[in-house]
Amino acid sequence: MSVGRAQSLSEPIPPTPSKLLANRTAVIQKYPLRRPMAWRHSLISQPLLHRLFPLLSPPSSDTPSASFYRLYQFFVIDWTVQFRNELEYFWTRSQPDWALSALPDPYPNNKPKTGAATDTDEALQYAIMAGLSWRKRLPRDAPPIVDDFEELRARPKHPESVPAWAEAVVPLSEVMDIPDSEGKVPTDEDVDEDFLRFGVRAATPHWVFV
Predict the structure, then answer these.
(1) Nearest to 20 by CA among 80, 70, 67, 84
(2) Phi, psi angle pair for 11, to nearest 5°
(3) Per-residue pLDDT, 8
(4) Phi, psi (deg, nearest 5) at residue 186
(5) Is the pLDDT of residue 142 over 80?
(6) What is the CA radius of gyration of the chain?
(7) What is the distance between the alpha carbons of residues 121 and 134, in angstroms, rounded to a whole number?
(8) Residues 6+ away with beta carbon under 8 Å from 10
(9) Strands 176-177 and 200-201, how do they pair?
(10) pLDDT tens per residue, range 84-129
(11) Strand partners, 191
C-alpha cells in the first residue's frame, strides 16, 4: 500500500480496554518481540488484487496511527518492554506526518461521550489515547538510552504540540482505573497526571529510557 493511500484512509480502531485486559495474551501473540517489522505496518484493508497476489504486491507501509494504536494496546496491558520499543520507534520517525500534532482523531465522527453520566468502554479508550498523546516533553531525536541528561537538557528545544482532538477530550464523568499486569490499581503516589486529567487512573508509563 502506498503511503498516500494509507494516509487517506483510517486505521481500524483497536480493541477497547476491557477486551484487551480480558485477553492480554492475544496482544502478546499478535505482536511478538522478534521480527517487529513483520507486524509494523498499516492494518488498512488491501485492495482485492493485492490480497489475491500478495507476493506481487508491495508491502504495506506503516502509519503514525497504526503505531499509536499499538502503543495504546501495549500500555493498557502493561507490557513494558514492547511499550518502550514502540515508543522509541514512534519517536524516532522524522517524517512530518509523524509529528504528534498530526495524529488523526481516532473518532472523527461519532465521538464517545467521555463526559456523559454513563461511561462506555469506548469513552475510556478515547481518554487513554488522549493521555498518551499528551506526552510531548522528550526531544524528537532523544537517544533510546539516556547517558547524559545534562547534554539532553542543553539541546535546542522544539516542543511538539498535542493534537487538537486530544486537547478537546472531556474528562470521564467518573475516574476509571487501569490496572497493571498483576491486576493492581496504582496508588495516588503512582498516578500519572497526564492521564488523570482525562479521568483515567493509571501509573506513569516508562516514558524515559534510563
Answers:
(1) 70
(2) -70, 145
(3) 47
(4) -65, 145
(5) no
(6) 18
(7) 20
(8) 44, 65, 104, 108
(9) parallel
(10) 999 889 988 888 899 989 999 999 888 888 887 666 889 999 999 9
(11) 203
